[in-house]
Amino acid sequence: MTVHVEMGGGAAHGVVFIHSCPRAVTPHLEWALARVFGKPVAVDWADQPIDPGAMRCEILWGGPVGSGAKIASALLAFQQVRHEVTEDPSPGRSGERFAATPTLGLFRADIGGSGDVMVSENRLRSALAQADVAGGLVEEIARLIGEPWDEELEPFRCAHEGSTVRVLHAVV
Prior knowledge:
The chain is an alpha+beta fold. 32% of the residues lie in helices and 31% in strands. The chain has one domain (2-167). The chain has helices at residues 26-37, 67-75, 121-134, 137-144, 147-158; strands at 2-6, 12-22, 46-47, 54-63, 82-87, 95-101, 105-111, 117-118, 165-167. Strands 1, 2, 3, 4, 5, 6, 7, 8 and 9 form a nine-stranded mixed β-sheet that branches. Strand 6 (95-101) and strand 7 form a beta hairpin.
């Protein structure tokens, strides 16, 4: 169920998890990914057991730094799709994590070398200001680290256990 795609300039690596995609949308999503990867991607779809009529897949990718953001941007057109895109940290650069759900929209965070969400000073200041207005610092910090997205996506993540990896090479 996992496909591996290498793009030119492989300085970065990451994973795309499509947790839940309506079956009828899968070809359109593949076309969008092909535009990012520069070649057709034969995605190995599997049924999503907790969302009847939906499909799921995993794609391991390698490519230029910043590819994770390009992949996440391409997937934004599919608002009914639950997905996560990660880009591992590389020398001199934090990693990134993108998560999207139909109810919450898009989440983005910097990821440190140990896998932790890194929150900048400006984002913390903004959270403090929002908490003064709304009175909920705990809720603001939870949003900064992506907790609502994790809670919604966790049941879908469990459905990916036991998947296999299929490798595709020579993506331009």
